[in-house]
Specification:
6-stranded mixed β-sheet; 17% strand; 5 helices; 6 strands; Leucine-rich repeat, LRR (right-handed beta-alpha superhelix); single chain
Length: 171
């Protein structure tokens, strides 16, 4: 059984005390990140839903799969409602969400996903870089989300065939 030295510094805490937090642990934001996503059916969202239930995440990064020759949507109408429900699990903690490189099957799919963010009281940033929003035109669900939230930075950078890349403000 180790004993504390009579003088000097001891590495162990007092008997029965918890281990000290790792260096920098208090400063690290809780981030949930998944890459190369293709959400075709509700069961494809289960991994996201299970992960988001583990803790109070401040930032969620969900990157879509690379574009194929058919430009297959990365978020189908069938999976969109399940993804919106999964995102609701973070409504008390979420500060930033990144839905980068996603191709939504329809405007209804976008509305379902963004509808899951409406209750996020701390939401400050929405990143929809390279999403399919330009192809679907201005989306009422996105505008309603931004205007009804505390978002400080809410923009999308869209790149679609035949158009120039550019940022558009959503406020």
């Amino acid at each position: 059984m180790p004993t504390a030295p009579a003088a000097g510094f001891a590495f162990g805490g007092a008997k029965g005390s918890a281990a000290p937090a790792a260096f920098g642990a208090a400063n690290k934001a809780a981030v949930f990140k998944l890459d190369d996503l293709s959400l075709r059916e509700p069961k494809d969202v289960e991994r996201i839903s299970t992960g988001l239930a583990l803790r109070a995440f401040e930032k969620v990064e969900l990157r879509g799969a690379p574009v194929d020759c058919d430009e297959t949507p990365t978020v189908s109408d069938a999976a969109a409602e399940a993804l919106g429900a999964a995102l609701r699990k973070c409504d008390a903690s979420l500060k930033a969400i990144s839905l980068v490189n996603h191709r939504f099957e329809s405007a209804e799919a976008i509305a379902s996903v963004l509808g899951g963010l409406r209750g996020c009281a701390k939401l400050e940033e929405v990143d929809l870089t390279n999403s399919s929003l330009a192809a679907l035109g201005d989306n009422d669900a996105l505008v309603a989300l931004v205007r009804g939230s505390r978002c400080k930075r809410c923009a999308s950078r869209t790149v679609s065939s035949g158009s120039r890349a550019g940022w558009r403000s959503l406020r």
